[in-house]
Amino acid sequence: MASCEREFLSTTRIIKSINQNLFSRPKEVADQANTLVSGIADSMMVDADIAIQLMADKVGGEDVYLHSLNVTLLSMMLAKEMKAPIEAIKLLGMGALFPDVGDAEIPERITRKMEALSKNEQSVLQQHCGHGVDIGKKLGLPPEALLVIAQHHERVDGSGYPLKMQASQLSLLSRIVAVVNAYD
Predict the structure, then answer these.
(1) 158 phi/psi in degrees, rounded to 5
(2) One-character DSSP codes across 170-181
(3) Are 154 and 165 in contact (CB under 8 A)?
């Protein structure tokens, strides 16, 4: 448990570095993300049950446990339980690590607003999916990861956004991340 906790905390530091260097060093960020996701896929954080307990316990403080790390870990664990091949799990992890990267292009007064958003504000917020795909392309993310970023707020019944796609139009990896994203 202690070893897993150290690895988990180290991973959160890497994610903070990725977020801080997203625009200034995109090549380095892509390399860091690929290394991180590959490491998670190879080890699945030693034991999935321990990783889930660490996320729930928030060892080390609320600010350390980032939504993107939770979504990445849980999505990859779910894919593993679904018997997905390791390459698919890694592609899933790359998309799951960056679902809300497009938030950087949305005004903070909208992304941090605690009250209900107006229709106009909702429309602006929903654009983060497209902005995220653009950023993902600059990072050189694979097409499957870009689909996850584009579709992570879609719902199988067509009630999601930005394109109101239905189940048959969504990639399986996107569907996994959409469920985990909503859960987290």
Answers:
(1) 85, 5
(2) S-HHHHHHHHHH
(3) yes
pLDDT score recorded for residue 98: 93
- Chunked into runs of 10 residues, the chain (184 residues) has average pLDDT values of 71 86 93 89 62 55 63 92 93 94 93 94 96 96 97 96 95 96 90
- 153: tokens are 């707020």
Name the nearest CA neighbour of 166 among 178, 174, 175, 158. 158
Q: What is the DSSP letter of 101?
A: G
d(CA 25, CA 157): 38
Cβ-proximal residues to 100 (8 Å cutoff; 6+ apart), any chain: 67, 68, 128, 132
Q: Considering all CA atoms of the chain, what is the largest pairwise distance in Å, rounded to the nearest integer?
A: 47
